[in-house]
Amino acid sequence: MTVRRPDDWMPPPAPLSRPIQRLNRPYRDENAPGGWGPSRAWIWRLATFLPAVATTVALVAAFTDWFAMDGLSGFEGALIAIVAFTFFWIALSVSTAVLGIATVILLPSRARPADSVAMAAPMDVALLVPIFNEVPADVFGNAAAMLSGLGGLPGGHRYTLFILSDTTDEAVAAQEIRAFFTLRASLPNATLHYRRRISNTDGKIGNLADWVEGWGGAYSAMLVLDADSLMSAPAIAALTDALARDPSAGLIQSFPLLYGARTVFGRIQQFSNRVYGTPLAEGLARWTDREGNYWGHNAIIRSAAFAACAGLPRLRSSRGGTQMILSHDFVEAGLLRRAGWAVRFLPRIEGSYEEAPPTLIDYILRDRRWCQGNLQHLGLLATRGLHPVSRFHLFSGAMAYLLSPAWFALLVVWALIGNGDEANVIRYFSGLNPQVTWPEITTANNLAILIFMYGMLLAPKLVAACTIRRLGLRLRDLGGLRQFLISLLAEISLSILYAPILMIHQSLAVLRSALGRRAAWRPQRRRGVRYGAGVLIKFHIIETLIGLLLMAGMALGLVTFWLAPIALSLAAAIPLSALSGVDLDARRWSHRQLGTPETLNAPPIIRRALMERRRFAEALQAPPADRIAAE
Fold first, then answer.
1. Fewer Cβ within 10 Å of end Cβ, the chain: N or C?
2. Are 217 and 14 contacting, i.e. CB atoms less than 8 angstroms apart?
3. Three-state SS for 518?
4. How far, in Å, CA of 177 to CA of 253, rounded?
5. 299-302 and 221-224: which strand pairing?
6. How far apart are alpha carbons 370 and 7 in whole angstroms?
7. Mean model confidence pLDDT for the chain
């Protein structure tokens, strides 16, 4: 058998210069068109942030009035600051969702901003699929489904698929090559290439950078996909058309919906994404305008702009040496906008999909990597020349994880305060009270706090659920009214149960990042696996013990019973984690639970992808053909 070099199945080189950006100096790309004209984004930003700020100020005033009856201590001031810190992000989420719902209802047929611009020349688009020890049948099955619909599209755009492998497992790599030739044989008119790197330096960032520097010059745009990404041909064409019509756009992000979930936890994410995600996406698209964000996949990027403006430097490590920027997508979007290119978000392009982690443990493992990368953004806030909204994206990404330690701090305080001045944990064990006067704890106070906080958390979900028809969802695609209400109640109940567990693990992830413990780069598990009892106990022992301690405090009368829902969730972390991996497709009656259109009435692209996955799985199980071996 002839040994092939990694680039043997690639087109001729077309280098594209990719200078590394300097973060301590502003940068403007001379090829960025600029001159976008007047923008009304400030109106939408005011409509979003003003209610969030006003509500937070009102809450702070109420807490200050409550705590300051006998003077405001430093402890109480710190507590109020944590309350304000955590609540603002809830309020911002609510106001973003409300803006999104108003946008859909008032402007149901809003055209894309670039639709009035004359159609530009057809584009050469590279579809990039970076992979790392993935299941080849799934990757190439999705690729076959996407390519099969692109040939007959109008518009004249030309598409080339690149499978960019960083796989380190030789057996998996051998299957990738077989799958590549199977795909090439089944779609002889498609243009597709495969490259496996000898050394996977810098992971996905290095993988894409290697392609840009080696072959990016031949393509006016690149559509970046993940290994689990799936996009219909009309969605790919719509993204390409939007970029072609808007010469100021450097990047256009679609709104990926979740699909393929079979497990309880996967269905929770898929249902939430489908039912509640549209208002948030619409609101976000409104107030971010041309200062949008990038989520690393299912987005089209102008190749020359990306190469010229988004070359990422390595950062100095706290232990000496350097480290790469982990959550590169937010930073790349900020650098594109800094250089004068628009970054847009078009949530109304339908047919963009990705998969979700199947179990609670898989979700937490992925979250550890994301946490480390997002916290790294705090050190990038001082980057010169960034647009204020780009800085806010970086800041909000970090806050998504720092909120969990803040919530945990509030939980600890609430547990320590217990039932007031005479019955609290510190006084019980030490005989001392760390404060002159505890805040007054009454049933009415506890009830008001719970109703207010849960009301704000559930408001976007309930409002979205009540407006699903206006958001483009049909009840029959959700299983009918009765099934939808059952699924809605199940999603809300299970989300409340899993939230305290996720709070603990995100807090631990923040601690690990602060201690410099780097999360390993592993392939994401995309198929459900039932973890054994030993794994579950080891993984969830910390929150289980916290839950049991809270319950013991309640039994002694030291911890308020209003914390019972949180205590029960934490104490039951192990069985809840086991529940998260239960396969809902295993039985006919459970298949409809937490169902979405992607499950109950799957669009053609999803059905085609599942069929192609099965076909590739069968082909890869068969003995290799002599012709393929000779290649």
1. N
2. yes
3. coil
4. 30
5. antiparallel
6. 31
7. 88
Q: Does the pLDDT of residue 117 top 50, yes or no?
A: no
Q: Is the pLDDT of residue 184 over 90?
A: yes
According to DSSP, the β-strands at 124-131 and 322-323 are unpaired
For tokens 């200078």, name the residue. 19
Partnered with residue 230 across adjacent β-strands are 353
b/e 64-84 (16+ beta carbons within 10 angstroms → b): eeebeeeeebeebeebbeebe
* Three-state secondary structure call for residue 547: helix
Contacts 24+ apart (CB under 8 A), 3-7: 4/631, 6/195, 6/196, 6/197, 6/198, 7/195, 7/214
Token pair 């690729």 is found at 143
Q: Kindly give, in sequence order, each residue whose CB lies less than 8 Å from that of residue 393, ignoring residues fewer than 6 positions away.
A: 293, 330, 333, 334
Give the residues across from 300 on adjacent strands.
Answer: 223, 252
Angle between helices 136-148 and 604-621 (to 10 degrees): 130
Q: What is the DSSP string of 14-79?
A: -----PBPPTTS----TT---------HHHHHHHHHHHHHHHHHHHHHHHHHHHGGG---HHHHHH
Backbone phi, psi, residue 143, to 5°: -60, -40
Q: How far apart are CA 373 and CA 390, in angstroms?
A: 16
* Rounded distance between C-alpha atoms, residue 254 and residue 116, angstroms: 20
Query: Residue 187 in 3-state DSSP?
Result: coil
How far is Cα of residue 271 from the mean position of the Cα atoms in its chain?
15
Q: For residues 340 and 29, is the Cβ–Cβ distance under 8 A?
A: yes
Query: Is the model more confident about 368 or about 464?
Result: 368
The one-character DSSP state at 190 is: S
In whole angstroms, give the CA distance from residue 564 to residue 570. 10
Name the CA dihedral angle for 475, 480, 483, 488, rounded to a multiple of 10 degrees: 10
Asked if residue 558 lies in contact with residue 424, where contact means CB atoms within 8 angstroms, the answer is yes
> Residue 618: what residue type?
E
Pair type for strands 257-258 and 299-302 = unpaired
pLDDT at residue number 631? 43
Question: For 326, how many CA atoms within 13 A lie in the half-sphere containing its CB?
Answer: 24
Structure tokens at 58: 């009102």
On whether the CB atoms of residues 129 and 596 are closer than 8 A, the answer is no
Question: pLDDT at position 629, please?
Answer: 42
CA 135, 138, 144: angle at the middle one, nearest 5? 135
- Are the C-beta atoms of residues 506 and 367 closer than 8 Å to each other? yes
